[in-house]
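tool_call: predict_structure(chain=1)
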Amino acid sequence: MTNPSTKPRDLRPNEMTIVEAARALRARELTVRELWDACATAAHAKNPELNAYLELFAADDTAIELAQKRIDAGDASPLCGIPLAIKDNILIEGKIASAASKMLENYTATYDATVIKKLKEAGALFLGRTNMDEFAMGSSTEHSAFGATRNPHDTSRVPGGSSGGSAAAVAAHLAIAALGTDTGGSIRQPAGLTGLVGLKPTYGAVSRNGAIAMGSSLDQIGPLTKTVEDARILYDTIRGIDPLDSTTIPDGLYSARQTAEHLRIGVPRHLLGESVNADVRAAFDATLAKLEQQGHTLVDVELPTSGHALAAYYVIMPAEVSANLARLDGIRYGHAARGAALLDDYLLSRTEGFGPETRRRILLGTFVLSSGYIDAYYRKADAARAVLRQEYEKAFESCDVVAFPTTLSPAFKFGEKSDPVSMYLEDIFTVTANLTGMPALSAPMGTVERDGKALPIGIHFTALHQAEETLFTIGNAVERSR
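tool_result:
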């Protein structure tokens, strides 16, 4: 069967994949300027409705002309001349990087993030900075200080988060592909809710230098794309050792097994309870059956600690948030408000600068790190994290990937998850990859109907450290099954 990423299609330029656009550029069917104009025109037309972008950049004529010259000279980089959307917490020199917060509303980046340097070297172009949950704290992009982003498939519903702006931009064809960041599912969950491919790489595979930190032991930058092959292209471009990020890792640090043509898919059925919507569960089972027909094998696996992963995550993550955002106090960095005394300066600056969800997580993180509670909460959560990693490594002795639905349900309506705990449950199947540092991928597995509209849902796979190739193999198999 032909791979969807290479199948010829009659499309507008902005609707193309990276593979299709690169082929058209090199076949002289399209110029870089025409591709940029198509994406920019669509973005300007649809962004007022979707609020996917916080800022659309003016065309960089020099960069466009240089990309065209490189292509004309035979440059083989598939990203040369490709317009991308960039999440608002990834630094681009000379551009605002606000992390969708009033605290950094006027902060202009003084340098490029390492991933941006790599993309510029590849000849990629940047359309704009995309909306997100403030400081990446949320699962719906409702917690942006600059308004919520809407799901292109149903504008009464959320696109997921925190990389919801990047997901909406790609799903609505306002960019060819995008970068997001993933701390507990913030690439994969919006990918699932908007019908995209989302990859959370192995921790340390991609430099975090120049990404505004939320949870330093959890954050990873990764791609949001229309196909698995596009995700591979972006990942291969941005990955690698970086002397500016001591957590980056060399190839071969982990002894990930060789990828086979037919994979063993681990299914933790004991975790797929009644909380998963019935039609989502049916689509998940149907997708697994199709994969089995392709020659892959289904294996039941047990992951008993996974039931506690979400609780551990919501102790560890706020603790790291509290530490990372302490510098944003209106004195050293960030929004500055002045009161009658120094204490008032701190209180006013952080109260005005941070939104409710950010303040909630800072307070929770400060509490679990405080004297008398760090042993009761933080250190126990960290111990649970170690056990969880061991359980996954044990499971991978009998399987190559572990499969879940990406989310419990399709995209929910605005305001539907006003209770913070119900919002946190959106991450129930995705947080384990961040806690263990393992790579994970969400791929589209069809749609379910809500209120007369077809809404995308995703299937989620986790693999061993540095086994991204295994994820691409199973992701391609899911694409063939559709």
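agent: The chain is about 35% helix and 15% strand. Proceeding to next step.
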